[in-house]
Structure formats: structure tokens, C-alpha cells
Amino acid sequence: MISLQIKNIRQFMNQFLAGDAFDSFLLEEATISTYNTFTIDGRENRAFYTSEEWEDKEIRPYEFTQWKKIRPVCFDLIKGKRTPTAFHFVLHLIPEYMASLLEKGETAVTPDQVKAFVLNIKYDGAALKLITGTSFHTFLMDRTPDTLWDNAVRQFLTKRQIAYEDE
User: Fold this and answer.
1) What is the 3-state secondary structure (H, E, C) of the chain?
2) Could you give the CA distance from residue 10 to residue 157 in angstroms, rounded to a whole number?
3) Disulfide check for 64: which of 42, 53, 68, 159 has CB 3.0–4.6 Å away?
């Protein structure tokens, strides 16, 4: 787990909310505090779908909503003349990318042992921080997936020219 402070919040938010840089993620949850506090549960709502739609992996491929689908809603809640007082997003890397990350890392850990590679995005009114995390289905002694994920996030930010510093 690492904590990274974003140096240019405006640039980051532009890529996060207006661009497609984070479209390889799923939204677990979001809390956005502006004139109200809005909370979004990113889990797909079973009651909304027919039985056929619920089982159809084309319509609903993941447990959580794809960031690219919910991004416009979050953008609408944040945009405006005034900066939010705070927000917190919990994102998961899409499972297909999870598998390829593990394959590149020379680890015995398999994709079915890793529940999620998590990226927390927290803004407290002054600073924007990214905090990584790895969730496993069971206890593992091998911490290689954590290191792989931490390095992947750093590479992701560097590739997109998002300046950060380690905390």
C-alpha cells in the first residue's frame, strides 16, 4: 500500500472526470460533498435488471459499475464554480487487467486469489491523495501483488504525466 499526493489537482481531475484515463476501473463507491453530500454505491442493482439481463455478461459484466458509465454523473455533481469540500472514490481495476498485471509479475499468486486491486482517491478540501490497496480472497504470505499494483499505479500516473509525490 502506498499513499501518493497529487501535485496538480486540476490536471488530475480533468483526466479523472473529463477524460478516459480511468476507464479501466470499476466504481465500488463514491462520496462527494458539495452543497449536499452525495453517496453512490457502485454495486449493480439486482432489482433494476430482468433475470436475463442480470445473467447477460454483455449487459452486466461486473459486480460494480464501470467508471466510464458513472463518470458523467460524478462530473455533474462536482463541476461548477465552487470546489467540493471533499470527495472519496473507491475504484477497482477491471479484472481482465488484474490478470495481466499478475502474469507480468512473476508471482505464483493467481487471479482467482486476488479479490481486487483498489485505488482510493481522497480530497479533503486542500490535498488530493491516491492510496493503493490489494484485497485477497484468503490470507497470502506473498506480497508480490501489492508491489506490482503499487508500481503499476506509479507507471499509470507517469504515463499520463500526472505529477505526484510519495508520502
Assistant:
1) CCEEEECCHHHHHHHHHHCCCCCCEEEEEEEEECCCEEEEECECCHHHCCHHHHHCCCCCCCCEEEHHHHHHHHHHHHCCCCCCCEEEEEEEECHHHHHHHHHHCCCCCCHHHEEEEEEEEEECCCCEEEEEEEEECCCCCCCHHHHHHHHHHHHHHHHCCCCEEEC
2) 14
3) 42
pLDDT values of the chain reduced to their tens digit, one per residue, 167 residues: 999 999 999 999 999 999 999 999 999 999 999 999 999 999 998 899 888 888 888 888 899 999 999 999 999 999 888 899 999 999 999 998 988 888 888 788 888 889 999 999 999 999 999 999 999 988 888 888 999 999 999 999 999 999 999 98
Please choose, from the candidates 128, 119, 147, the residue with its C-alpha nearest in 3D space to the C-alpha of residue 26: 119
Nearest partner of 121 among 86, 145, 149, 150, judged by Cα: 86
CA–CA dist 166, 6 (Å, integer): 9
Question: Distance (Å, rounded) from C-alpha 163 to C-alpha 159?
Answer: 10
Q: What residue numbers bound the domain in which 70 lies?
A: 3-166
Q: pTM for the full model? A: 0.92
